[in-house]
Write a structure and sequence with these properties.
With 402 residues, the chain is an alpha/beta fold. 42% of the residues lie in helices and 22% in strands.
Length: 402
C-alpha cells in the first residue's frame, strides 16, 4: 500500500529500508535462471557468494548459499555455467542491498538447453521471423562490409584475408565484441545496431569460430534474433562450423557454414568475374558472328533468285500479253463504235422520215390558233378567226372565211 508522506512528515531511511524488507519477505521462494559470473568460496567459510547475470541484459544479482548447498554441484558448476536456483529474496537493511538466499542449485544441462532452444525456435517461427520471404538478397558487389567478431580472432582473420584476396578493393567496418560469456549478447546486439545505422554498409557478417553448445548460446538469444530480424541491411550468419546451427542461422538473410565461407559468399572473386566476363564476351562474339554469317547466307540466297538478278524479266514476259490484250480491246471497241454508228444512222433516217418537218416539205401546212394549238377539226375555228399557217419554209397569217 502507498504510504502517506510529505516534505513535512518524511519517513526515516531506516523505516523505508524496513518496509522494503517487509515487502520483499512476502515474495517467498522463486526459481531463478542465470549465468554465474563471479564465484567466491573462501576457505573455511560456511557461505559461498556468487553473482547471477541475465545473459540477454546487463542485469545481475548477488546470491548467497551455505557451503553444503554449493558443494552438491561444485563438481559441475563453475564461472560461466548456467544454473537454476531456488532462492528466497532477502533485503539487507543496513546497506539497502537485495540478494538471493539459495536453498538449491541445479546446473542447466545441454539437453535442457537444446529443448529450450527448440521451443524458442518454434515460437519465433510461428511469428514469421524465419520466413523465406523476409530474407533480403545480398548485393552483388558490396563496397563496405560490416563485420561483428571477436577481437584478434581466427574468424576475423579468415573473413578479412579471404575477402581481400577475392576482391582487394572491398572495405570493412569491424566491430570487435565478446562472442561468448555474459557480455556477448548485449555487445553483439549493439554492434549489429551500429552497423545497420551506417548508410554505406551494404551487408553485415556476424562471425565466430567453433565451440561448444554453451559457447554458442549467445547467438541463439531471443534479443539478438529479434534485432537481426529488424535490420534493413542484409545479415550473414557465420557461426561455428558446418554442424553448428544457432538460431541466428535461421533469421539471417544468408547462412555461411564457416567465416571463410561467409567471405566467399559475400565478396565475389575478381579472377572468377574476369573469367566469367571473358567467357560471356567470347559467347557474345560467337553469337554475333553466327548471326552475321546466317544473314549473309540469306542475302546471297536472295540475290541468287531470278527476280533479283533480272528484275525486268517478268515485265518483259508480260509486255506481249498486255499488247495483245490492248489490240483486242481496241478491235472490240472499234467494232462496237462502228455498230453503234450504223445503228445511229439508221435511227436518224427513221426519225427524219417521221418528223413534222419532212411532212411540211412535201407541201403540207399546219394551222395554229393564237394560243399555239394546232387545228385538227373544222369545228374548232370560227368565221373570221385569225390563224397562222406553218409551212416548210416559214409561216404566214390566214383568216377563216365563212
Amino acid at each position: 500500500m502507498a504510504l502517506n508522506t510529505s516534505a513535512e512528515s518524511p519517513l526515516p531511511v531506516g523505516e523505508v529500508s524496513r518496509l522494503i524488507g517487509g515487502w520483499i519477505d512476502r515474495l517467498g521462494a522463486v526459481w531463478v535462471e542465470g549465468q554465474i559470473t563471479q564465484l567466491s568460496r573462501r576457505p573455511g567459510a560456511g557461505v559461498v557468494f556468487l553473482t547471477l547475470r541475465d545473459p540477454s541484459h546487463d542485469i545481475s544479482v548477488g546470491v548467497t548459499c551455505y557451503r553444503q548447498v554449493f558443494d552438491a554441484v561444485a563438481d559441475v558448476v563453475s564461472e560461466g555455467a548456467r544454473v537454476v536456483v531456488l532462492a528466497k529474496p532477502e533485503w539487507y537493511a543496513p546497506r539497502g542491498q537485495l540478494s538471493l538466499r539459495a536453498a538449491e542449485i541445479r546446473p542447466v544441462g545441454v539437453g535442457e538447453l537444446l529443448a529450450r532452444l527448440e521451443q524458442l525456435k518454434k515460437t519465433l517461427a510461428r511469428e514469421g521471423l524465419f520466413a523465406p520471404e523476409r530474407k533480403k538478397p545480398l548485393p552483388f558487389l558490396p563496397q563496405l562490409v560490416g563485420l561483428v567478431c571477436g577481437r584478434a580472432s581466427a574468424a576475423e582473420r579468415d573473413v578479412l584475408e579471404n575477402a581481400r584476396h577475392r576482391w582487394p578493393a572491398v572495405r570493412f567496418e569491424v566491430r570487435n565484441v565478446a562472442v561468448q560469456g555474459v557480455h556477448a549478447v548485449p555487445q553483439v546486439v549493439q554492434a549489429v545496431k551500429e552497423l545497420d545505422a551506417i548508410e554505406d554498409v551494404d551487408v553485415i557478417i556476424v562471425a565466430r569460430g567453433g565451440g561448444s553448445v554453451e559457447d554458442l548460446l549467445p547467438f541463439s538469444d531471443e534479443q539478438l534474433i529479434r534485432t537481426v530480424s529488424q535490420c534493413r541491411t542484409p545479415v550473414v550468419s557465420a557461426i561455428g562450423h558446418e554442424p553448428d546451427n544457432p538460431l541466428l542461422d535461421h533469421v539471417a538473410d544468408l547462412r555461411a557454414s564457416t567465416p571463410t565461407d561467409a567471405a566467399k559468399k559475400v565478396v565475389p572473386d575478381v579472377g572468377e568475374e574476369y573469367e566469367r566476363v571473358r567467357l560471356l564476351r567470347d559467347r557474345a562474339r560467337r553469337c554475333v558472328a553466327a548471326l552475321v554469317e546466317r544473314e549473309e547466307r540469306g542475302l546471297a540466297h536472295a540475290l541468287a533468285r531470278p527476280s533479283i538478278q533480272d528484275p525486268h524479266r517478268m515485265i518483259d514476259e508480260r509486255a506481249g500479253h498486255v499488247a495483245d490484250l490492248l489490240d483486242r480491246g481496241r478491235r472490240c471497241l472499234r467494232h462496237q463504235l462502228d455498230r453503234a454508228d450504223s445503228e445511229l444512222t439508221h435511227t436518224h433516217a427513221r426519225v427524219v422520215a417521221l418528223s413534222p418537218a419532212a411532212t411540211l416539205k412535201r407541201g403540207y401546212a399546219v394551222l395554229q390558233k393564237a394560243d399555239g394549238h394546232a387545228v385538227r377539226d373544222p369545228d374548232e375555228v370560227e368565221a373570221g378567226e385569225a390563224l397562222r399557217a406553218r409551212v416548210s419554209e416559214g409561216e404566214f397569217s390566214v383568216r377563216v372565211d365563212a
